[in-house]
Amino acid sequence: MDFLEELRELGVDTEDAVKRFAGKASIYEKLIKKFPCTVKEHIILPDFGDDEVDDAIEKTHALKGVSGNLLITPLYNGYSDIVRLLREGNLHRQGKNLKNLYLYRKA
Predict the structure, then answer these.
(1) CA nearest 31: which of 8, 4, 57, 58?
(2) If we measure between CA atoms, which residue out of 66, 71, 65 comes closest to residue 13?
(3) What pLDDT, in 10s, does the model give residues 47-62?
(4) How many CB atoms lie within 10 A of CB 1?
C-alpha cells in the first residue's frame, strides 16, 4: 500500500487534495509530510490555563487551516470543534476533545 492509499484509509481526501496541487501527488506528499512539524510548532496541551485561551485559539485555528488545506478531514473536524468550543468559552468540553486529538497524534 502506498502513502496516499494509507492516508485515504485514515479519512484523508487525497484525490481532491492532489487536485489542489495541480495534480502533482509529489508536491502534496511533500507538504503533508511537513504537517507533523507544523503540529509541533503549534503544540497545545490539554491542561492549559485560563490565561492561555487566546494562544490556544490561535494555535488551534492555525492547525485547523493547515489540516483543511491538506484535506486531512478527521483532524480538520477535530480542530474545528475545539476552536468553536474555545470561542464559546466551553473549556471543559474542549479539554476532552483536545485530549482525544492528542492521543490520536500519539497513536
Answers:
(1) 4
(2) 71
(3) 677 778 888 889 999 9
(4) 7
Task: Say if CB 83 and CB 60 are below 8 A apart.
Answer: yes
**Of 1, 8, 2, 91, residue with least CA distance to 16:** 8
Long-range contacts of 94-99 (CB under 8 A, 24+ apart): 95/46, 95/47, 98/44, 98/45, 98/46, 99/46
Cα distances (Å, whole numbers) of residue 104 to 18, 22, 33, 79, 89: 24, 30, 17, 12, 24
